Amino acid sequence: MSARIISGVEIAKAIREELKGEIADLKAKHNVVPGLVTVLVGENPASVSYVTAKSKTAKELGIYSEQVDLSAETSEADLLALIDKYNQDEKIHGILVQLPLPKHINEARVLYAIDPDKDVDGFHPVNVGKMVLGEKCFLPCTPHGILEMLQRSGVETSGKEVVVLGRSNIVGKPIANLMLQKRPAGNATVTLCHTRTKDTDFHTKRADILIAAVGVPNLIKADQVKDGVVIIDVGVNRIGMSESGKAILAGDVDFESVKEKASFITPVPGGVGPMTITMLMKNTVQSAKQAAGLL
Q1: Is 182 a catalytic residue?
Q2: Domains observed in the chain
Q3: 98, 117, 208, 282: which is the annotated catalytic residue?
């Protein structure tokens, strides 16, 4: 048996086409143009690449986009003032401050300063709390993308054993919470493993669905999973450079060996990654609709 590939590229493409239609309708019927601002402090190469991709995607979809590039020496006070400015700006529906921030800036203070109604990353405590309670909110983009991938691939989650590796606030904790809720791609029995879990293999071998988000290349091998498992690999690890100077990437799962046992598997690259930016755009459109009283 060889696993069916869950292509984040293809699913993201389908969702973006849906969003184009929604955005066109908002403009034509309600004179509403969703607006997104991305704020980058410093010149971290990965962050620069990511923010550039976000701005490019927004423009391709018809979302009004602003990108603010600040020096690494920018003060916390100046960054907070900028956020406050965009909190008041009616043409901006989503505010995204790219992480990580320089060490002299308190990340929590910055994230908490964003208006929860414009927090399209889903990191503000108000949105996190609503997510835990199962209320309408902006879901964090990577977990939201995982739900879409499972649902659109026809993977049954109800009553299944889901094992999540990694307890980050960005992926592990929220996807564990979302999948146990009464919702599409939910109703699962969820186990969350982390660095203090005593026997991780015991749990991974039981998993019907395994979500790996630990940042360790090729950590999970074929002998650690059961036949027919569904693998969602969130890891993006640089393991070298090609002769052309392009980064060679690997996931947290040993793709070549595990794909022979899995029923579904996401590749790296081309799996979860493309979904994250797409769900950011989906949240921005949601925010614009809410601001216009359409939701």
Answers
A1: no
A2: 30-115 (3.40.50.10860), 141-273 (3.40.50.720)
A3: 98
